[in-house]
Amino acid sequence: MSDLPKAALFDMDGTLLDSEKLWDIAMGDLAVDLGIEMTHELRESTLGNSMNDALTKVFAAASVPVDDRDYPGRGAWLRDRVSTLFTAGIPWMSGAREALDMIAAQGIPLALVTNTERVLTEQALDTIGRDRFAATVCGDEVPVGKPAPDPYLRAAHLLGVDAADCLAFEDSPTGTQAATAAGCAAIVVPSAAPVPAGPRRTIRRSLLGLTLAEVAAAFNGTMGHREDLR
Predict the structure, then answer these.
(1) pTM over 0.85, yes/no
(2) Residue 130 maps to which CATH number?
(3) 151 partner at 20 to 30 Å CA-CA among 14, 54, 73, 119?
(4) Domain co-membership, 78 together with 144
(5) Are 125 and 164 in contact (CB under 8 A)?
């Protein structure tokens, strides 16, 4: 198909892997350790965030004074907790593996674009498969993580294409904002928080049953808001 994107850029947590549930456990444990409960609203606000942005929101909810916020220490604690949870295995999101295979079969290069730090991403790639991607971009490898466009712009640059010629796959408001700010069209499967409709955003309930015709329609902005899909 000539109207397919030149590259496909995939988020990881909640898009390819059902790992947000594991982050839920770790973030809940962090909140308890700081003396608060991880409410639905607080957890939703941290979805897709960089490590520092997520920690900032939890610190603020726990009323930790700015000068007492131990970003390196708490970041290491959270990283170790998630790593332990990852070790037990990370399930795929429904239809995600098939979507990767279908797009790759067209000769379209794939990139992984995540706010997760490199050390945890490498662990998750044991499940996804490193050889699927021509490039991987992690949250600790760009000046500013999602919702800034930096991760998506870097991925497009590494693939040698313009971001406007790419189709992103996302699950969170934060990640979707980053993708569209970079100029990408996006297929969005909200995992735990609603994502507002917008230009060049196609909302699906799942990646299950995704077709090449739908990929082309999403890239060209002719599909729109499709909550009727799986």
Answers:
(1) no
(2) 3.40.50.1000
(3) 73
(4) no
(5) no
